[in-house]
Amino acid sequence: WGIKFDLSAEPGHSVVPKCISQYVTTNTLVVVTVKVGVGYNQKIDVEVTDNSDANNKYGHKRDVSEETRLAFTTHANADISVCFTNALDEGFQPNPQYHRTIDLDIDIGAEAIDPNQFEKLKPMEAELRKLEQVVQEIVDEMEYLRKREARMRDTNVRNALKEEQRLIAQRRDEQGLKFAKWESGKQGELKPVDNAFGNASG
What we know:
The protein is an alpha+beta fold. Helices cover 38% and strands 32% of the residues.
């Protein structure tokens, strides 16, 4: 899939990245193709990362002009982010005329395979190879969903156990309070020992 947009230039000290994200499963081939339009006195940088715990970095291109390509295999089930910055050259101030047109294409899995690899194969063989890639992507996706479901199920079980323990503790405290009140009431019904003996002697 692809997207095209204009990116305004900003002073280097205040430049803010503009990121495009896409969820991708682990061990998946990804090809990011960036085409940058003409623009003077400004510099485009591109960085590709993911939002996994490892915060994997897949590539960084500086001062991109015309076209560049980044190909990599993902290391985790995560959102990959393609981030762009457009920094003005020193001494220039922001102005609507300072912008670059970005044409971004992200090919994932079977879409990212170079068709030249299949040129020497018969049509049926080439189609089977592509289908193998698609099936592998489906298997990986289902495995990810299975693991996520297991994690959610474990989380629900833990939460249920915590709630049960809380209710047990609450009932225990309530019973303890009732017993304490009962003990207090029983003590109030008993006569003092000294008074009892005093009445007896009288």
